[in-house]
Amino acid sequence: MTIPHAGWTDELARARLHFVTGKGGTGKTTLAAALGLALAREGRRVLLIEVEGRQGIAQLFDTEPLPYAEQRIASVPGGGELRALHIDVEAALLEYFEMFYNLGFAGRTLRRMGAIEFATTLAPGLRDVLLTGKIKECVGRTESDGRHTYDAVVVDSPPTGRVVKFLDVTKALTDLAKTGPIRGQAEGVVRLLHSGETAVHLATLLEEMPVRETVELGH
């Protein structure tokens, strides 16, 4: 992958997973979308992910609210493509049930009963494990020829006040499970987040509070 902007380091150029965060109102969603478009140049396939439920990406691109399905939202000169995904936590949990326990029907029944929403509300750490687990699946997915489905994945992450907890899958894992598929999935997420494939971008403004939160997050 070539460097999309002058001034990028070799480490940033090698990253395939980009988290964009910042204090609310600093334009992090706009920055995430701009980064996704920049990375889509020269024929790259890029996935832009939203995890907060605000449908900010759909508003930026003037499209219908994003479903829990990857869909194209922009074509880029040079043959590149930008797709977008809104991760719905309840749908991600149902997908998890189907993938690891073959409980698709039972999971849908639980959702109708309200048990899925109850579970994700009762265990906030579960929500973050599901979200980051889905992100990991998108980053690692490959085609039949062995190539990655996406050259890069950009995440419009929670704001600075919540992003550390969101990315601290180790803590969530300790609270949730000692063994089993969910632990294995979370450990894979931890390895990805601490690898050279992952970069975090901070959006801020020249104002006291946004700068202060950015500096605190950087430390």
Walk me through this protein's architecture.
A six-stranded mixed β-sheet has the order 3-4-2-5-1-6, sandwiched between helices. Helix 4 runs antiparallel to helix 5, helix 4 packs across helix 7 (124-140) and helix 7 (124-140) packs across helix 9. Helix content is 50%, strand content 16%. The protein has a domain at 10-87 and 133-176 and 190-203: P-loop containing nucleotide triphosphate hydrolases (Rossmann fold, 3-Layer(aba) Sandwich), CATH 3.40.50.300. The two termini are 29 Å apart. The chain is α/β, with parallel strands linked by helices and 219 residues long.
The total of helices stands at 11
Q: So what's the CATH class of the domain at 10-87 and 133-176 and 190-203?
A: Alpha Beta
Radius of gyration: 17 Å
Which sheet architecture does the biggest sheet show? 6 strands, mixed
As laid out across the biggest beta sheet, the strand order is 3-4-2-5-1-6
Percent helix, as a range, is 40-55%
Shape: globular
**Overall residue-averaged pLDDT value:** 83
Instruction: Please provide the ordered H/E string of secondary-structure elements.
Output: HEHEHEEHHHHEHHHEH
Number of strands: 6
Which structural class fits the helix and strand makeup? alpha/beta
CATH topology of the domain at 10-87 and 133-176 and 190-203: Rossmann fold
So what's the oligomer here? single chain
CATH architecture of the domain at 10-87 and 133-176 and 190-203: 3-Layer(aba) Sandwich
CATH superfamily of the domain at 10-87 and 133-176 and 190-203: P-loop containing nucleotide triphosphate hydrolases
Which stretches are low in confidence, meaning pLDDT under 50 for 5 or more residues running?
A: none
